[in-house]
User: What shape does this take?
Amino acid sequence: MPKLGYLLPTRERVMENHHETGSLLALAEKAEGLGYDSIWVGDSVTARPRHDPLTLLAAVAARTKKAELGTAVLLPALRNPVLLAHQVATLDRIAEGRLILGIGIAADMPAIRLEFEAMGVPFDKRVGRMNEAIRLCKALWTGKPVDWNKLWTVKQGTVGPTPHRPGGPPIWFGGGLPAGRERTGKLYDGWFPNLPTPGEYPTQMAEVRAAAKAAGRDPKAITGAMYLTLAIDDDTRRADARIDSYLAHYYGVPAAQMRARQRSYAGGVAGAAAWIRSYADAGASHIMLRFAGDHERHLEQGAKIRKELGWS
Assistant: This one.
């Protein structure tokens, strides 16, 4: 049975100058109470300011019991991997093995380049930094002393605790381009794009699995996920205007540009249910929903859709 997840509006709250976390934690509790299978938090430091995902998820982990918790998506290239390994292992212990580490490299946009510059990280080397950072994290998660002498230097280093799950949490890569699909198959545990249409999804997921097979990995072990943005309203014009306003404000670029780069839906509940089902039918086993505002109402509608689809 497919799983349905929910993205907390950390970016939106900061844009609204609501920096407190109580309402976010309440939304997380509500989502779990309504039966959502997972709760997610995005990541950005200066490009799209919001709450730190690992810190916030620690609080969410303490307020929930069953829902999986994930990053959608974390940018490992911005972080020291030794510290990241320590933080993720601790978070996975708090969550008792419910953590999914969604990772990415970030799109090539002016604000993202400035973010990398502010963090002292070369933007053009971000793919190699991410891959090495995750390899180093995995080495440290064994609990055994690590010697490392590449981008980072570690001498007989260990971190504790080790993650709740041996080897660490599953790592999903959020890349929709061909290189990202190949990278996922070779290195990671799940594919977490926001770009393919339902018609494109099966072929692209097959590419991920083919890359896994070529790398000597089990293709069936890779989770197929999808990141979707929705404005649910029976007034289609109003829903369309809402999602355009949301995307333009969120990213600071024209809405049409973002709608071409990530899949979004504007319309009524029945259409939303059919759209979500089309991704499940295409092979996505875990679908994460980002709502364009009005989260209390959207959460209720998403739960209704989940029930109508028979996923509860």
Q: What stands out?
A: Residues 76 and 280 are 29 Å apart (CA to CA). The longest strand covers residues 223-232. The chain has a mean pLDDT of 97. The chain has twelve helices and eleven strands.
